[in-house]
Amino acid sequence: MAYKIVVSVQKRTLSLFKDEKLVKTYPVGVGKMLTPTPTGYYKIVNKAPNPGGPFGVMWMGLSRPHYGIHGTNAPSSIGKQVSHGCIRMHNHDVLELSKTVPIGTTVVIRAI
């Protein structure tokens, strides 16, 4: 069973696929104009529960240094272009996702 995450920056969604079938779609916050979320193909390289600060209850680092999928201490920012390029999720959503996907999961970030 292979998982894949696809992020749409324009739609501000993160979709989880298992064996190419859509499992769930989550609302996310993305990078602002001056610090956009980088598009491309990445992998989850680490997980850090309770990283502190603005990162909420979970950090999942991407293979592009300094970028990740994480929770937030500002839930009203979900669905907006507000981050420094990271993908923000509601804390309960990022916990659910982090329990599902292993390190090494492919993350595809698309502009559309």
UniProtKB/TrEMBL annotation:
GO biological process: cell wall organization; peptidoglycan-protein cross-linking; regulation of cell shape
InterPro entries, A to Z: LD-transpeptidase, LD_TPept_cat_dom, Transpep_catalytic_dom
Biochemical pathway: Cell wall biogenesis; peptidoglycan biosynthesis
Domain L,D-TPase catalytic: 3-110
A molecular function GO annotation: glycosyltransferase activity
Keywords: Cell shape, Cell wall biogenesis/degradation, Glycosyltransferase, Hydrolase, Peptidoglycan synthesis, Transferase
Active-site residues, record numbering mapped to chain: H70 (proton donor/acceptor), C86 (nucleophile)
Keyword presence, Transferase: yes
One of the Pfam families matching this protein, by short name: YkuD
Domain of life: Bacteria
Cellular component terms per the entry's GO annotation: extracellular region
Family note: Belongs to the YkuD family.
Protein name in the entry: L,D-TPase catalytic domain-containing protein
